[in-house]
Each structure stands twice: as C-alpha cells, then as structure tokens.
Amino acid sequence: AQTVTQSQPEMSVQEAETVTLSCTYDTSESDYYLFWYKQPPSRQMILVIRQEAYKQQNATENRFSVNFQKAAKSFSLKISDSQLGDAAMYFCAYRSGDSNYQLIWGAGTKLIIKP
Amino acid sequence: ETGVTQSPTHLIKTRGQQVTLRCSSQSGHNTVSWYQQALGQGPQFIFQYYREEENGRGNFPPRFSGLQFPNYSSELNVNALELDDSALYLCASSSTGTGHLRMQYFGPGTRLTVT
After folding, report:
1. pLDDT the model gives residue B101
2. Chain B stretch 52-111, residues whose beta carbon is closer than 8 A to a beta carbon of chain A
3. DSSP A68
4. Strand A10-14 vs strand A109-114: parallel, antiparallel, or unpaired?
C-alpha cells in the first residue's frame, strides 16, 4: 500500500524569506501523481502544485516549486518570498495513475509566517 | 472558489443518530469522492462515486454509505453515529479522462460534531 509521510508538524518562516516543506512517499507503482494542497483556516483544500511522476522536470507555479526526487521518493515544496497569506496547513498527497484515483494524504505541516 | 458546494457547514448530532451530508459537484464533473479529516490529521478516503455507482472504497464500515444523483450531486450518509465520527467531511469532484482531467476540486467541508 502507498503511504505519504510529512515529518514536519510545524514550520515557521520570516515574511519574504524562503521555506521548504518535506514529503516522502512509498510506492511500488511507476505511474502516479503527487500534489501539494493548502488548507487555510477557511478549511477549503486548495491545489498548490502537482507533479506527474513520468516528468523529470520539477513543477513550478509562480512562487511555489517542487524538488521531485523519484529514486529517493521525495517530494518537497519550496515557497519563495513567503507572504502572510501563505499561512496554512500544507498537505502532500499521492494519487495512483490507474483507474482508482483516490488521494492518499500525509498528516500535514502547519506553516507560520512571521511578519 | 472551486464551484463545489457542501451543506450544511456545521452539524451537531448525538451518538447513535443518523446524518446526511450533501455535495454539489463542479459543472462538468461526473465523479465525487468523500474524505474524512479528523482534527489535526490528513484526510482519509471514504469512497468515490462515478455515474451513480460506488467506484472505490476506503477502510470505512458499511454504516458509511453514499448516493450520487443523475445531476452528479452526492450524499454521504452515516448511521449509528459514534464519537469518533466527529470530523471535517470533504467532498471533491472530478471528471473522467487522462491525467490532469482527473484533478479533484474540493468543497469547503462540513464540520460534524458527535456528542
């Protein structure tokens, strides 16, 4: 069975600085997708960035980028120029590439932005 | 905003009672997934519905059941409520197809408290 592990329950960063959130996963599949979701106090899960396993190039979305290390099964999220609005819970999630596409989630990392 | 809506926002029930939670999918989406998120944890997959039939189920007992309607809206029913059922229940809609077309878009959730 696939598992997702986020080993940092809480991280803090100074506004405008850069922070990296860690995620590791375990799978025997070769076709899968990885995601970072943000959950602010409003509770709604918001997709931050996604990565297809077959792509070697790391995904980037504005200030958000990932470091995808397939052999090490590592998928970290880098947030550059942190803003107060980035404060939230961040969840790493895995999805198999086959027809049953449920998401498997990590326990989350709480990101605190210091003004 | 994702276009996925859930009702009610909050709900308080007594142990042993039954509850129905509702979800309206984003326009054009034909698949609905339900997740349970206990306080301080990542979401856990309950089940998924595609074209009105259950298309996958997580490790949840049969007292968790669902429906999907012809307009692709969905219900989650929980019978014989237990204290451990207290959680945020998230609904996510998606469409069939390859890769990114299966992206899941989340509603704001329903907070269920069982006393």
Report:
1. 54
2. 55-56, 58, 88, 90, 92, 94, 99-100, 102-109, 111
3. E
4. parallel
CB-CB under 8 Å, B33 with A105: no
Chain A residues touching chain B at CB-CB below 8 Å: 4, 6, 33, 37, 42-47, 50, 52, 91, 93, 95, 100-108
How much is the CA Rg of chain B, to the nearest whole Å?
13
Whole-number pLDDT of residue A73: 96
In three-state secondary structure terms, B84 is helix
For B70, half-sphere exposure in the C-beta direction (CA atoms, 13 angstrom radius) is 0
Number of neighbouring beta carbons within 10 Å of residue B15: 12
Shortest Cα–Cα distance, A66 to chain B (Å) = 17
- Looking at residue A62, its pLDDT comes to 95
Give pLDDT < 70 ranges for chain B: 1-2, 96-101
Per-residue model confidence as pLDDT tens for chain A (115 residues): 889 999 999 999 999 999 999 999 999 998 899 999 999 988 889 999 999 998 889 999 999 999 999 999 999 999 999 999 999 999 999 998 876 678 999 999 999 999 9
HSE of A49, CA atoms in CB hemisphere, 13 A = 19
Contacts of B60 (CB under 8 A, 6+ apart): B36, B44, B46, B47
